Amino acid sequence: MNKKNQSGFSLIELLIVFVLIGVLAGLAIPGLLKSKEAAEDENAYGSLRSMVSSQLSFYSANNRYARLDELNAAYNDGLGTMSGTSLVRGKFTFVMNPAVPDNEMLKEGFHMTVTKQGDGGGAPYTLDVDQTGRIIEPFGSRHQ
Fold it and tell me: What value does the mean pLDDT take over residues 53-80?
């Protein structure tokens, strides 16, 4: 038998390829997960900015700010799904403080909080916004 004419890969060559693929995947996957997490965090900021803008539009039409259910209804439920007095949008839960403000309070302003629950190692965090549009991240809320 002449072994010089045989073609194909040896077991060692295949093992080396699998090890290299494993090392590359081990390096790439954590970076991809961090990028995904950062994109979700920016989604929370974008959603808050959008809701503040929506609140200002509602105020100009109604001379008061909106409760979350009114705001969501004004946008044909495009802001999220109502769950009691909370608005759920993806991994984020939006609530007003107090949960059901009266009309007199809404003439003066509003205060909204968004909370993202941690998933598989990610810590939960909250962001706050009021009628000024300034988004506040409480100290240590994201990196507990």
Answer: 89
Total residue count of the chain as it appears in this document:
144
Query: How far apart (Å, rounded) are the C-alpha atoms in residues 32 and 76?
Result: 34
Laid out side by side, the sheet with 125-130 consists of 81-83, 86-89, 92-96, 111-116, 125-130, 135-136
CA distance 45 to 137: 10
Q: What is the pLDDT of residues 10-52, one digit of tens each?
A: 889 999 999 999 999 999 999 898 888 788 778 777 878 888 8
